[in-house]
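Async update (no meeting this week)

Hi team, since we skipped the sync, here's where things stand on the single-chain job. The sequence we agreed to prioritize is pasted below, unchanged from the tracker. I ran it this morning and attached the output directly underneath so nobody has to dig for it. Comments welcome in thread, and please keep replies under the output.
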Amino acid sequence: MRAERTLSRRLYLERMERALSIPPLGRPQVMALVIMGVVFALLVFIGISDAFYVYGEDVQVKGVKYTSPEEVYAISGLEGCHVFYVRPTEVSARVEQLSFVRRAKVRVMIPARVTIWVEERVPVLVWQRDDGVFWVDKDGQVLPPKGEVRGLLRVVDPQGLAAVAADDPSEPETFDTYLLQALRDIHDIFPSVNTVLYDRSVGLRLVVRTREGDIQVYLGGYIGLEKRLEYLPTVLRQMRRQNTWYRFIDLSNLEQIVLEP
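Output:
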């Protein structure tokens, strides 16, 4: 019995030894282990190397005039972000929150280079109200003024009548686009007119400068303004042909035009 137990124990140990023994590695297995090691080391390097993390010197901002590159970088959320975690659409959305940014496009390159192209809003009008002065772009977007832009038409609107409230109370107000187009038409027809006044009592009024002197023109509300604007040059031509001059022209009602010397 003792001999049988000894033999059984020996067989068990031999089986365990065979089970735990590592077969000799061939060339394919060695190559696979080397590749795995290299990949692991590369992943560790990418994870810890500063070369793959985005900082200010790695970001290039293009197309800005009214917005500083520092503003774009600050809102982009790129500071210290690993390049593999940068989502261009998310960065674009954050940059487009800036008031002067109409559209932003982001390109990411390895190891850590980010280029942000910005399409800015361009002011076409100065909007002067009792509560401040603002710029307006072609879409009626209200912008904070940044310096001076020569050649812009100024509308003096003390009561802020041109303001259009957004459907969402959290969104900022905009400038009435119909009025904006009317004002741009005025500026196209009379480039010398640099200021238009707008109030409840008389609507739109402007000053046309001539060789004989300044002429105050009342245009009324901007509904139907196109026809009245078309008629104004006709009145001015008639004045030149007749060698007459009026200091006041009221075109608010084409059926009853008022001319005062």
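Quick observations from my side:
Residues 27-48 form the longest helix (22 residues).
Residues 123-260 form a domain with the Rossmann fold fold (CATH 3.40.50).
Reply here if anything looks off.
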